[in-house]
Amino acid sequence: MSLKGKVALVTGSTSGIGFGIATALAREGASIMLNGFGNPAEIETMRSTMAKQYGVKVGFNGADLGHAEQVSALVAATRKQFGSLDILVNNAGIQFVAPVEAFPDDKWQAVIAINLSAAFYAMKAAIPGMKASAWGRIVNIASAHGLVASPNKVAYVAAKHGLVGATKVAAIETANDGITVNAICPGWVLTPLVQRQLEDRARQAGTDVEVEKKKMLQETQSMLQFSTPEEIGALVVFLCSDGARTITGAPLSIDGGWLAH
After folding, report:
1. Can you give the pTM of this predicted structure?
2. Helix (H) or strand (E) holding 185
3. Counting C-beta atoms within 10 Å of the first and last residue's C-beta, which end of the chain has fewer, N or C?
């Protein structure tokens, strides 16, 4: 489908899943506001390359999503630079692992702030403009952990469950305003971060990356294949299409059969 003339904001889009989503939207003709952390020179190269390759406008805003006022300002800056905001993808997320009784308070607050509160503040800021134009697409990147739990991930699981719930509420409230709100729930995705984890596991175990891939996937998934950022991006593009105009409030699994257990 063509998204020419649409403007998309993708949080956490300077690497991994977010970059895959931003690229997929740009390929379909959407102007993109990138957001995230990283080396400024590398981000500028990423921004200019994407703009040149797909012939779209691409901006960057380094807002820290742990602060509510910066989230609202990010939405406002996107509208100011591009003239509108049609597609909001709340992708930014962080993780910390520890048992409940040992989970640090500051890590709980940080995970909830980035993974859940930032999405709320972004939706709150974006929805009025989408209502005014009678068209909008909000896609929240949750996780299989938005639907099931794993040990030692209390803040992440709580945040992602909350994000799925917030998605449903926003979908109900905007159902007749030309807006859809959905959550994508990935299982294991082969990002650069996960690749480094696999390499570390292989070194520690004295095995190789392919062995560790299989072991990691067998812990949760029936399908022994990773999803890719490009596949997540393709699902986001579909959710922005006319073919998905009545899909709203849905948690959509792309998890290699994780939830089929």
Report:
1. 0.96
2. strand 179-186
3. C
Q: By C-alpha distance, which of 90, 137, 132 is closest to 113?
A: 90
DSSP SS3 for 116:
helix
Catalytic residue among 60, 156, 188, 226: 156
**Domain coordinates in residue numbering, the chain:** 7-189+227-255, 190-226
Q: Can you spell out the DSSP letters for 20-61?
A: HHHHHHHHTT-EEEEE--S-HHHHHHHHHHHHHHHTS-EEEE
User: What does the pLDDT look like over 190-221, one tens digit per residue?
Assistant: 998 899 989 999 999 999 999 999 999 999 99
121 is catalytic: no
Q: What is the CATH number of domain 7-189+227-255?
A: 3.40.50.720
Percent of the chain with pLDDT over 70: 100
Neighbours of 182 (CB within 10 A): 25
